[in-house]
Amino acid sequence: MNINATLFLQAIVFAILVWFTMRFIWPPMMKALDERAAKIAEGLAAADKAKSELANANKKVDEQLALTRGETTKLLADAEKRAAAIVAAAAGQAEEKAAKIVADAHAEAEAQSVRAREALREQVAALAVKGAEQILQREVNASVHAELLGRLKTEL
């Protein structure tokens, strides 16, 4: 065989291989590559969209956190004001109760003082009657001299 004929046959076989590849293999391969490129582009677009949605969600979360912090601060301030008002009211009530207790104690002391004076007057009156009995050397009738003893009590 001749080398030229072999080269010519190989060139024909190569041309048939190129034609067959361009006709049957190349279009599905290009279609698969285009589909893959489209999927990659869709994935990148979805990633960009998700990234922007994430940024929006983070922004909304930050706004909500700021709003919640403001409300929490306001609630804490209100709670502190209420606590101070409750403490002030309790202190006022305690002062009122203390004043009432002191007033009751003063009244009780005054009542005991009055009772002690009355008891002392009774004792002084009894001693005066005994002293008068001894001076007169006779028995004094208490029912007859009740008026005299009453005046004596008031004078003491």
Automatic annotation (TrEMBL):
Membrane topology note: Single-pass membrane protein
Cross-referenced Pfam families: ATP-synt_B
Coiled coil: 40-67
Keywords per UniProt: ATP synthesis, Cell membrane, CF(0), Coiled coil, Hydrogen ion transport, Ion transport, Membrane, Transmembrane, Transmembrane helix, Transport
Top-level taxonomic group: Bacteria
Transmembrane regions: 6-26
Intracellular or extracellular location(s): Cell membrane; Endomembrane system
Family recorded in the similarity comment: Belongs to the ATPase B chain family.
Oligomer status and interactors: F-type ATPases have 2 components, F(1) - the catalytic core - and F(0) - the membrane proton channel. F(1) has five subunits: alpha(3), beta(3), gamma(1), delta(1), epsilon(1). F(0) has three main subunits: a(1), b(2) and c(10-14). The alpha and beta chains form an alternating ring which encloses part of the gamma chain. F(1) is attached to F(0) by a central stalk formed by the gamma and epsilon chains, while a peripheral stalk is formed by the delta and b chains. F-type ATPases have 2 components, F(1) - the catalytic core - and F(0) - the membrane proton channel. F(1) has five subunits: alpha(3), beta(3), gamma(1), delta(1), epsilon(1). F(0) has four main subunits: a(1), b(2) and c(10-14). The alpha and beta chains form an alternating ring which encloses part of the gamma chain. F(1) is attached to F(0) by a central stalk formed by the gamma and epsilon chains, while a peripheral stalk is formed by the delta and b chains.
Protein purpose: F(1)F(0) ATP synthase produces ATP from ADP in the presence of a proton or sodium gradient. F-type ATPases consist of two structural domains, F(1) containing the extramembraneous catalytic core and F(0) containing the membrane proton channel, linked together by a central stalk and a peripheral stalk. During catalysis, ATP synthesis in the catalytic domain of F(1) is coupled via a rotary mechanism of the central stalk subunits to proton translocation. Component of the F(0) channel, it forms part of the peripheral stalk, linking F(1) to F(0). The b'-subunit is a diverged and duplicated form of b found in plants and photosynthetic bacteria.
Entries under NCBIfam families matching the protein: ATP_synt_b, PRK05759.1-2
Protein name as it appears in the record: ATP synthase subunit b
Name of encoding gene: atpF
